[in-house]
Amino acid sequence: MSRSPFPLSRVYGLLEPGPVLLLSTAHQGRANVMTLSWHTMMEFEPPLVGCVVSDRDFSFAALKATRQCVLNIPTVELAQKVVDCGNCSGRDTDKFATLGLTPLPAEQVAAPLVAECYASLECRVVDTRLVNRYGFFVLEVVQAWLDADRKDPRTLHHRGYGAFMQAGETIQLPSKMR
Fold this sequence. Notes:
alpha+beta, Pnp Oxidase, Chain A, seven-stranded antiparallel β-sheet, 17% helix, 37% strand, FMN binding, oxidoreductase activity, acting on the CH-NH group of donors, NAD or NADP as acceptor, Flavin_Rdtase-like_dom
C-alpha cells in the first residue's frame, strides 16, 4: 500500500460522518433555511447534536438570538435544492419561496420544519460556550418527526468542493448496542 500526502484543507471530506442537513430558523418574523454539514452526535438521551454555524451565515444571528432551530434531513431527491440553498444567502433571498420548499409549523420551537425532508428534529440550544470562538452550538433535540412512508431513504453526504455521496445499502450485523 502506498501513502501520499493529503491537503489539510480537505481533511473534513474524509471525516464527514453524517448527512447534509437543512437548518431552519425563524427570527424577527422571518423564516430562513441553510445547508449544514458540520454536525456531530454528542449524546444519546437526551439527544444532543453539536453543529458549527459561521458568524458569516445569516442563520447565525437567528440561532444565537432565539436559541432554537430545526435540523431537517433531506434525501437525494432534494440534492439540487440543497446545493442551491447553500449557494445563496438568506440576507437577500427568501429561500423557502425561491427554492420551492414548504415551511411547516413546528410543535416546540418557532423555526419551521421543511415539509420535503425525510425527517425533522426540533432543537433548542443548550450550550453556547464555544459559539464565540468556533461557532459551535450544542443543540438538544426536543421533538423528532419522520416520514414513515419513505422506505430506505438515501441521504446526501458532503465530501467537499461540490462532491457528495449518497447513503448506500444498509447492512445489519450482530451488535450488543441497541
